[in-house]
Each structure stands twice: as C-alpha cells, then as structure tokens.
Amino acid sequence: MSAVISKPLLIELFTEELPPKALKKLGEAFAAGIEASLRADGLVAAGATVTSFATPRRLGCLVSAVLDRAPSQSFREKLMPLSIAQGANGLASIALDKKLRGIGRNDLADVLRETPLTEAQLPMSTEQLEVLPDGKADAVYLTGIRPGVSAADGIPQALTNTLAKLPIPKVMTYQLADGQTDVNFVRPAHGLIVLHGDDVVPATTLGLPAEHIAHGHRFQGANNIELDTAANYESLLRQYGKVEPVYSARREMILTQLETKAKALNATLGTPASYADLLDEVNSLVEWPTVYVCEFEPEFLAVPQECLILTMKTNQKYFPLFDAAGKLKNQFLIVSNMQLDNPKKIVEGNERVVRPRLADARFFFETDKKSKLEARVPELAKVVYHNKLGTQGERVARVAKLAGEIATLIGADKARAERGATLAKADLMTLMVGEFPELQGTMGRYYALHDGEAADVAAACAEHYQPRFAGDALPSAGVPTAVALADKLETLAGLFGIGQTPTGDKDPFALRRHALGVIRILVEQKLPVSLPALVRASFACFDGKVTDASAALSEFIYDRLRGYLKDTGASTNEIESVVAHTPSQLATVPAQLAAVQAFSELPEAASLNAANKRVANILKKAAESGETIGAVSSAIAQEPAEQALHAALASIAPQADALFAKGDFSGYLKSFAALKAPVDEFFDKVMVMAEDKAVRNNRLALLRDLRDAMNKVADLSRLAN
Q: Helix 572-579 and helix 550-565: axis angle, to 10°?
C-alpha cells in the first residue's frame, strides 16, 4: 500500500484594491469556499487547518495538509426497482437501458442486451450491477469503488467553485491584456498563486495562469517574492513584502498600536463598540499598519464633540482620543500604510486635511445657533413626510398631541411633552444635521439647551429616537419617554393605516424596530399603561385621515412581543400562554411569564393544564351549539364531585384574588394547585353535558368560572402537551 502524501496548499489571488467594507466577508468566504470544495472531494487530510488571508490587494488561504489524491470511495447507487428494470427474458428493459446510457455507462447497457439481470453479478472494472433487496421488493443498484479525485483536478475546481460563489457586492467587468477578452470580478486581478507544497498546480482563472510569485507592499515591500514552498508564504510576505496577510492578526497589530499610543497620551479610545467598525474598515485599507499621533487646534473643542468625532471617523477614518472623563482631546490617531522613521510629512498632511473639516463643523454649529429651534418648526411644513400622510409639520403636530396624552397616562408633564415633541424634528432643518444626518437628535439637544429650553424638553429632542437598536438605552425620564412612545406609535399607526405593513423580510419603514421599541419602553420602564389604549390614541390623532387598523397593529406588536420574550429562556408554550392572553399592560408580562414558569414546575401542573385544555374545548363546543351559561347555583349541583369542585374554587378564590391584586402572579397560580384532586374527581365522575338543561348549564358555568379563575394570569391550556 502506497503512503498517503499530503502537502500544504496555498492559493492567493492578487488584485487591485478591494472594497474595504466587503474585504472581511470576502476573505472569509474565499477560505471557506476552498475548504468546502476540497473537503467534498476528500482532499483535506485529517487534522488539517485553514488560514484565511485578506488584505486590500489579495484574497487567499493556506490549507495545512491537502492530499495528492483523495482515497477511493465505495458507492452504492439505486437505479430503479427490478420490476421496472427487467424486460423480456430477464434482460434490461428500455427504462434501464436509457438510465445507464444517461449516466455514461454504455458498456453496462451493451452487456445487459445479452445477459439477464438475475444472473450473477456483472463485473465491469471497479463497478458492477447488483440486484439487492429494497424493502419488500428487489432493486437494481450500481455499486463499486471509484478512485479518489486528484489534487491536480480538485484544486482548480475548488478555485472555480469558490470564485463563482463569492459574496461580491458589485461586479466589475474589465478587459484582459489581450485587449479582447472581458472577465468579471470585484476588482481587476493581476496575479494567481496555486502552490501545493513546492509544486505549482496548473490552474487558470480570470485569465491568469498559476505561478509561485508573490507581490509585497505597494511602496515598501519587494515586488516579486519567489516562493519555494506554500508553508513559507506568511513568513516571506512579512519579511520581504512588508505585508501582514492574516486579517485578524493585522487588526490586532492596529489595535495594539492604538492602545499603546493612547496610553502614552493618558487617553482612551472610548468603548470597544464605539470604534469596532472603524477598526475593521481601517484594517481593510492597509497591509502594514503603523499608527501616528496627530492633533488639531484646541479651540475646535468648543464645538459639540459628537460633531468632531463624526467628521473625524466618517470622513477621515481617524481615531479620536478621550480623557478619563470621556471628553474629547485635541489629539487623534491615524493608521498609515507607511512605516517611516520620520513620519513628519504624513502627520502634517493629515492635520492639514482634518482642519477644514473641523472648521466646517464649527461654522455649521455657530450659524445654527443664530436661529432658535422654535423658529425652524414652520419649515417642517415644507418637507413631505409621506405622500399619504402629509408633511413633517403635520406629523409633528400629531406626535405632539399624542405625546401630551401619553404624558398624562404615565404621570409626566403634559405641556413639556408637547413642547419636546414640537421641537424634536426641528434640527432636521439645521446645517449640521443636513451635513451629518447621523447627528439628528443629538444636535437637537444642544440647540434646545442653547435656546433655554427645559432639560427634559432638550432630552426629548435627542432621546425620542431611543431605543434605536437592540440593547440601546431607553429614554431617561418621563417627558422624553412620552415623546419616544408617541413618535414610534404615530409611525406605526400611520403606516398601518395606509396599508404599508411589513411583508416577509421587507420592512422599509423599520416598523418592526419601532414596535420593539414600544415594547421595551413599556416593559423595561414598567409603565402601567394599557397597550390597547395607546393604540386607539395613536389612530385617533389622525382624525380619520387613515383607516383604523388597531386590531392589525395590536396583533403586530404582540407578535414582536413573542420574539422579545425568547431571550428570557422561557419555552414557546410558556410564552404563548402569556401572549395569547393579550395582556393589556405589557409592564406585567415578565412577572406573568415568571409565574407561568414557576407553575410549570409544580407536580400538579401537567394535570391542571390538561384539564384546562379540556375545559376550553368543552366550552367552545357549548358556545357553537348555542348553550346559554348563567351563574353557578349550588342548589342545582347534584353530584358530590361537582359540589366539591364548586366549594374548593369558592374557598381558594378570595385568597388568590388578593395575591393577584398585589401583583403576586406566581402566588396566584400556585393557589390553584390545590384544585388538582377536585378537578380530577369532577372529570372522573361527572358528565358535563347532562340531558337536563339546567344541570348541564350549571356544570358549564362551573367550568367557565374555573377557566376564568385559572387563566387570569395566562392561558394555561396552551401549556398542555
């Protein structure tokens, strides 16, 4: 037996600068695609590792152990039942003949013209036809051993498969050097390495033949680096090419340098989440990163720091620095693709570039302050919000009205809530927000405070957008909370009212996010407010200009509630038992769900849940048959089990109701565990649907009261298996 030979495999595609925001995903997909294709062919040796390479000018991967040839594979492929495969005299039928020729096995088809299927196996090289049992009947199988795929065949095919499936955001069409052939790729490619051990695999893609030459840093590395073997790619590229090819390693290089420089300046970079995206983007722009310190004039710090931070990060890809109190410093960090002993010109160049940007921000801020937010509100009447819902001015009026009503419900100041809602969108008309839309709300707060507005009114200008995403902070106080709820509910009601509801994965107006925001505010701030009342008020603020879709909107919100509650760890049935109950106050939902979970752990729960489901079915059928159910009468109760259940329920109810009134939902449900025995006894010995109408209706009334009592917290029938 010949020894199994495996060697490292290097594939690199050298290109012009790749789109930075797509680079990470492209690099991961390239490596994953190569690995998946090779594994499908059985070419990846056991224990092999895969390293992904992604720089602005290359995609690649190194598979540590790829076989010269995959192991042979035995196979068994069912062709068809024997009854169909066998024709006259036991020879192959027309159907089997066509099947064999369709899979390229003319040799077997020719043999079966003269040899019956039921005779001995038909050896044919390493493959053969066999008649084998298949359940109750026999079937014809093609079996054998197929030689494994060679590396020479499998590697080029892996490259072809991978390039065809890359998540390219936008394909470019460019012409090859012959001046005639057009190819399509994310960016023009100029080099291809396919090296298996020290052997170049004869592969071609995008008009490029495989070779063993790597290209270093555009300015500081060797242009042609001859690779003696695949395993030396990384070390040679780093040493001579001044390129760190591993995306994660290069990111760590940048972060380490940033943190070191920041620490030396007694500064911080802010929270990791605040610069994570920028770090990824910068990492996708450099191959040999070096961090330098720059600064700007301190007088720019008079501008709100959010403005300066945004222009530095968004426009220039710079890292702002902060002091221990979180205040912006006049120093910042840049990530350069050049490592120089004297970076003076790079530093001065970047300082010169950022200065006009900061000056623009200062100009916008100073100019905006010359007009009060209140004076900008009439300008909103000139901005169309939606062709069926009117202007931003009309929308602001609706939100202000609704915010005042919500403020009254939650105990906040109505007048200031209305004021906050009126001013909340005014910053959309400022120069700063016009230049940096991301600052809407943030600038509203600054300008409101500058105008002398109350602190909670200014807070409403900024915080009415919250929560903007999962995990985002909620509004900080009553007035901003009222405005935030009003803003989201007006959006939901308006768009539901004109039929613009989300479909499938399409949600152009982010209504799912708005609904989740409403849920989070009501639940996490424990607001004792009726959701149906909020929905009704939301549609009422349109004064009949949209269709009242309260039922559809409520259902939509409750459906989002189901998703929100999944993070609690509760089961689907437990969540459904609470949500199907359509709780009016979402603030109590966590306590209701916790109570259901606690009840589910009781030994009596399974029996009572099943009984609850049985009761629900009985009452449903009774309603469908037109039964009229009045009050329970102990005088009519005939059976001892019936009387016992009535007495037990009457005994438990007062204590349970007292617990419910205190919000002790868990205690309330646990109270009913004592009903297991009388409920079981009732269903064992009492016929509910008695012939006597009075008796029957009395028993139905008892079951109705039982259901209403037990389902006051949640629909326990949903817990039954």
A: 150
Residue 48 has pLDDT above 60, yes or no: yes
Q: Kindly indicate the confidence band of residue 146, based on its pLDDT and cuts at 50, 70 and 90.
A: confident
pTM of the model: 0.80
Residue 583 domain flag: no
Both 678 and 538 in a single domain? no
Decide if 60 contacts 12 (C-beta within 8 A): yes
455 residue type, one letter: A
For residue 27, the model assigns a pLDDT of 97
> SS3 for 380?
helix
Number of H helices, E strands in the chain: 28, 20
* Exposure string for 132-169, b = 16+ CB within 10 A, e = fewer: eeeeeebbbbbbbeeebbebeebbbebbeebbeebebe
The predicted pLDDT at position 100 comes to: 86
94-101's contacts with Cβ under 8 Å and 24+ in sequence apart are: 96/140
Q: For the chain, what is the domain count?
A: 5
Please say whether the dihedral angle defined by the alpha carbons of residues 376, 378, 384 and 390, taken in this order, is positive or negative: positive
DSSP state of 427: G
Same domain, yes or no: 321 and 436: no
Three-state DSSP class for 211?
Answer: strand
pLDDT > 70 in the chain, percent: 98
Angle at 624 between CA 620 and CA 626, to 5 degrees: 115
Phi and psi of 199, rounded to 5°?
-105, 130
pLDDT at 121: 46
Give backbone dihedrals phi and psi of 689, rounded to 5 degrees, phi first: -85, 65
Task: Tell me the pLDDT tens digit for each residue of 258-275.
Answer: 999 999 999 999 999 999
Domain of 220?
Answer: 6-69+150-241
Mean pLDDT (the chain, rounded): 92
Does residue 512 share a domain with residue 415?
Answer: yes
The CA distance from 465 to 304, in Å, is 19
**Locate tokens 């470019």: which residue?**
172
Q: 82 is written with which tokens?
A: 């024997």
**294-319: per-residue pLDDT in tens?**
999 999 999 999 999 999 999 999 99
SS3 label, residue 16: coil
* Contact call for residues 63 and 50 (beta carbons, < 8 A): yes
Same domain, 211 and 283: no
How far apart (Å, rounded) are the C-alpha atoms in residues 660 and 668? 6
Give the Cβ contact number of residue 703 at 10 Å: 25
Q: For the chain, how far is it from start to end, CA to CA, in angstroms?
A: 58
Sheet holding 122-124, edge to edge: 73-81, 137-146, 127-134, 122-124
- At residue 438, does pLDDT exceed 80? yes
Asked if residue 22 and residue 159 are part of one domain, the reply reads yes
Could you give the CA distance from residue 333 to residue 327 in angstroms, rounded to a whole number? 16
- Structure-block tokens of residue 235: 């070390």
Radius of gyration of the chain (CA): 36
Are 196 and 81 members of one domain?
A: no
